[in-house]
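Q: Given only this backbone (130 positions), what sequence would you predict?
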């Protein structure tokens, strides 16, 4: 029995090791998440909304920007973009699935060897460097 190994995350997906198109690494993803969640927190605080409103606003940010700009404002600031595995436009339903699972949190913190969370695997997407 042979075990397949890869030298770097994204190799088996056909992505480069480094630079444009390579897997978006943990530091960039955490920074993007913090920026998006922070924006939702500040906006909801300005209006006096509660914690549930923060999550709803965070989801709205994801759902508006993922299909239109290939990434949330946080993704774009940290040099990331969301693509399908074949590199095509993510469409509308993939961001909905991805965002719903991201809000649940657990799927986002379980990764595969390519550093893709279960939320990205379920949606058929990958965060790459832009």
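A: Predicted residues:
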């Amino acid at each position: 029995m042979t075990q397949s190994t890869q030298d770097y995350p994204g190799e088996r997906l056909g992505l480069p090791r480094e630079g444009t198109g390579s897997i978006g690494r943990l530091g960039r993803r955490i920074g993007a998440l913090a920026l998006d969640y922070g924006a939702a927190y500040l906006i909801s605080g300005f209006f006096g909304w509660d914690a549930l409103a923060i999550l709803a606003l965070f989801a709205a940010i994801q759902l508006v920007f993922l299909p239109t700009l290939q990434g949330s404002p946080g993704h774009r600031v940290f040099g990331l973009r969301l693509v399908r595995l074949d590199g095509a436009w993510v469409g509308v339903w993939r961001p909905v699935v991805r965002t719903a699972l991201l809000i649940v949190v657990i799927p986002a913190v379980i990764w595969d060897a390519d550093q893709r969370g279960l939320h990205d695997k379920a949606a058929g997407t990958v965060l790459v460097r832009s």
